[in-house]
Every structure is written in structure tokens, then in C-alpha cells.
Amino acid sequence: MEPKTEIKKLGLFHSFLIYIPAAILMFCLTKYLIPYLSKTTGQETILFWFIVSGLGIFLPLIITGILILKAEGFGISGKTWVERLRFRKITKRDILWSIAGLILVGIFSGLIMKGMELLIGKFDHSPAFMSFEPLTQGRYWLLLVWLPYWILNILGEEFLWRGVMLPRQEVAFGKYTWVIHGIGWGLFHVAFGWQLLITLIPLIFIQSYIVQRTKNSWIGVIMHGGLNGPSFIAICFGLI
After folding, report:
1. Can you give the residue range of the structural domain that contains 176?
2. Phi/psi of residue 131, nearest 5 degrees
3. Does 1 map to a domain?
4. Does the reported pTM lie above 0.70?
5. Residue range 146-198, pLDDT digits in tens
6. Range 201-208 contact pairs with CB under 8 angstroms and sequence separation of 24 or more
7. In total, how many domains does the chain have?
């Protein structure tokens, strides 16, 4: 029988005590380790982004989330998953929120990209460690490396950011939590470069708002994974 626990607040200082080290880790691994491994082996940087970020960034996010839960007194159980982390049954309302969120993100991100092109001309918004050519014969095996990375990416971020941290931040910041949460989530992506970071602003804040509004962490998984996964597949096959 698990002890009765309550969700304690996670204020500004302790929130960024998590966001900042995660951002520094992301920066160091993408700035130094991934280019080094690519140069040393002659393999594409995207391969090492999958491996290094999956095992060196997103898996540690999951471990961090588990350690926080244990420190709070929550065991790893179905009850914790549903009540504490708020991975609850998806309702029709949740689906509508997810679809509306994805549409809004698509519209605003598209407008931002067009606006940036008008201001600075054509640009590649993907950071160097993520850039790659569409897959060709002999390179389709990269999809096998991408799949576990993608699962760790979505699970790691949604588990820690939305499942573990967001409910505690709501205790501290109330209805404005999505703003603080979005800023912290954006900080985590600083290593991606300012071009991509700006285009991510709609996702960062709209998703944070909707997950807070619905109190269902699965919406974060749907929105984050729904944009991340299909867009990568489309790039792989030269569709975008």
C-alpha cells in the first residue's frame, strides 16, 4: 500500500535547477561529443544524434523523473501513472484539444517560418547535428536507429516535463504555469539554435497550455510525437 502523498509546489528556482542542467547537457553533447564522434568515425551526425541524445539526454530525463517521484514518496505504479503523472484515459474532448493544438501549431509555425524568410532570406532551421539528406538505398537502416530514439525522446520529455514537473508547477504558479513551463522547455532547446527555437515557440507554449488546461499528459505525447515523428519520416523520404 502506497503512503498517502500530495503534490508539492515546484517554484521558479527548483524548476530551473532542472531545466538549466538539462539544457547544458544538451548543449555540450551536441556541440562537442556528436561532432567528435561523426568526425572520428565518418558516420553522419544524425546517427550520433539518435544514439547520444537517446541514451545521454532523454534516458537521463526519465531517470530524473523517477528519482523525483521517489523523493516525493510515490511508487512506480498504475496509480502513480494515472493520478500523479496524469496519464489519464483519452476522452473525445482531449482528442479535440489535440487536433486543435496541432492545427494552431502548424499555422503559427508556418507563419513564423515565412516571416523569417522575408526578413533574412532562405535558411536551414535544422541545427548541424540534425541535418541529413533524404534516405537513399543503403541508408534505410537509420530508421531502425531512429525508432528507439524517438520513443525515448517523446517519453523522456513528456514524462519529466509534463508528467512530473507540470502538476507541481501548477501548485506554485496557477493559471500562468504554462508560461513558466514553456520558457523552461524552450531553454532546454537552446542548443538547437535560434532559428529552430523561434519556429518551436508555438509548439512550446500551445502544448504547455493545452496540457495544463486538460490535465492529461497524453495530450503532450500526441502533440509532441505527432509533429516530431511524421515530420522526420517526411524528411527521410524527401516529402518536405
Report:
1. 12-71+91-131+138-236
2. -75, 135
3. no
4. yes
5. 999 999 999 999 999 999 999 999 999 999 999 999 999 999 999 999 989 99
6. 201/108, 201/112, 202/104, 202/105, 202/108, 202/109, 202/112, 203/105, 203/109, 203/227, 205/178, 205/179, 206/101, 206/104, 206/105, 206/108, 207/101, 207/105, 208/166, 208/177, 208/178, 208/179, 208/181, 208/182
7. 1
